[in-house]
């Protein structure tokens, strides 16, 4: 192996996935050195494969931990490949019924495939939003603070200065993440909004028996959607497909989301609005609704169907996603030209 030309080593590595390249590196010191020097090359070759390409460091996806991974490193490339596989599994799962509650009419096989692609791209956007907290201008939070989820972060009376160390709510990153959402073009924004509503409807279907016994269940629907938006595939995979101990972590994260929601409802001064509100506000800018109740403006649901909870905004969401998938807006009092103009800005 020590006698192999550099060109041959690189050629072999180009045929492998990242996990196999790392194993190949372990064969000897020379191969390790050659491939280490080419990390950026191998990463950039894979960049077009990612639905939403990262622009800087990303988070790892570990149990109760998210470490910043250096941009263009093998570790980051492996994380991105892992996410891609997990997103595929999430959207293909029985939990994520991609047409559940959507009411967008009959679709052809190709349109179904495109709808699945849209949802996968939207989940990749949620990962991008989560990764904003991994790099400048945000400051990644140290590992020790992740370990306090079972104790400190579930309390309701945590002082703001201490709460700022909570990596799961990550209050300091929230304004930067919200600002990014406000820059999203219409098609990407619609994709994210639709993904959240589909998964929230799936959450209802999977937990419907809890509705009569849990008076706060409607609010938990929104908390679930917020966790998907805030943590991306790390949370979604953990909750839907992770199994023990991943599902326990996902439930703990939802408890923290509920703590924050209650704090906001009680009027705690330093509790910021959710990222879900940022999505709805951006959607309203792109697809303004003239007649909306105060509850709808505040994202308050009085129904177990999230897509109907924000009418007439829900109608416009259907119309927008239908136009993106089929080329024709149906099911809402809105002209195709208006949808086309917004989604093609």
Low confidence ranges: 300-304
Roughly what is the average pLDDT, rounded to an integer? 85
**Class derived from helix and strand content:** mainly alpha
Order of helices and strands: HHHHEEHHHHHHHHHHHHHH
Q: Give the termini separation.
A: 54 Å
Net shape: globular
Total number of strands: 2
Quick description:
The chain is mostly helical and 345 residues long. The protein is built from 18 helices and 2 strands. Helix 6 packs across helix 11 (217-231), helix 11 packs across helix 13 and helix 17 (313-326) crosses helix 18 (336-343).
What does the model show?
- The protein has 345 residues and is mostly helical.
- 58% of the residues lie in helices and 1% in strands.
- Strand 1 (58-59) and strand 2 form a beta hairpin.
- Helix 6 packs across helix 10 and helix 12 (233-240) crosses helix 13.
- The longest helix is centred in the middle third of the chain and has 23 residues, at 109-131.
- The chain starts with 5 loop residues before the first helix and ends with a helix.
């Amino acid at each position: 192996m020590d006698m192999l030309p550099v060109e041959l080593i690189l050629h072999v590595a180009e045929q492998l996935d990242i996990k196999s390249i790392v194993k190949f590196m372990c064969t000897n010191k020379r191969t390790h050195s050659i491939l280490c020097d080419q990390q950026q090359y191998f990463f950039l070759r894979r960049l077009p494969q990612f639905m939403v390409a990262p622009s800087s460091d990303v988070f790892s996806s570990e149990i109760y931990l998210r470490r910043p991974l250096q941009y263009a490193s093998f570790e980051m490339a492996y994380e991105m490949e892992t996410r891609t596989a997990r997103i595929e599994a999430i959207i293909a799962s029985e939990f994520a019924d991609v047409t559940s509650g959507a009411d967008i009419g009959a679709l052809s096989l190709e349109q179904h495939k495109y709808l699945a692609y849209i949802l996968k791209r939207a989940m990749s956007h949620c990962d991008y939003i989560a990764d904003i907290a991994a790099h400048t201008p945000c400051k990644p939070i140290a590992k020790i603070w992740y370990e306090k989820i079972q104790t400190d972060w579930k309390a309701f009376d945590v002082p703001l200065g201490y709460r700022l160390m909570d990596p799961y709510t990550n209050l300091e990153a929230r304004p930067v993440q919200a600002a990014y959402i406000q820059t999203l073009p219409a098609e990407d924004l619609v994709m994210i909004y639709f993904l959240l509503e589909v998964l929230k409807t799936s959450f209802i279907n999977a937990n419907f028996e809890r509705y009569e016994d849990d008076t706060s269940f409607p609010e938990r629907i929104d908390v679930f959607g917020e966790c998907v938006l805030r943590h991306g595939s790390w949370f979604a995979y953990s909750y839907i497909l992770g199994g023990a101990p991943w599902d326990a972590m996902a439930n703990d994260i939802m408890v923290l989301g509920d703590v924050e929601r209650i704090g906001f409802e009680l009027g705690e001064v330093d509790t910021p609005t959710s990222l879900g509100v940022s999505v709805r506000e951006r959607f309203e800018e792109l697809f303004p609704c003239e007649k909306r109740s105060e509850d709808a403006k505040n994202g308050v649901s009085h129904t177990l169907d999230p897509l109907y909870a924000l009418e007439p905004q829900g109608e416009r969401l259907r119309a927008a996603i239908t136009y993106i998938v089929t080329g024709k807006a149906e099911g809402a009092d809105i002209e195709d030209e208006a949808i086309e103009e917004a989604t093609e800005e």
